[in-house]
Amino acid sequence: MSTTRWTLTVDQTMCCSSGMCASIADGRFHLDTGVSQPVAEEIDPDDAVLEAARSCPTAAISVRDAADGTPIAP
Prior knowledge:
- The protein is an alpha+beta fold.
- Helix content is 19%, strand content 31%.
- Strand 2 (29-32) and strand 3 form a beta hairpin.
- The N and C termini lie far apart (25 Å).
């Protein structure tokens, strides 16, 4: 069993409120006051989150290794 965890953040100044992240990674993001927010800051690895980060039109989503901060996506 893997103990790897990821941190998930959305840069509020870059988010354009497209909603793509919430559509791609349902349950991981929600739109709050017009911008995306992660549902949880620390998560288990999830391919849908990587796809959401890579698909974000403004690259506002950051996925990092929770243990050492190494960037994972985008």
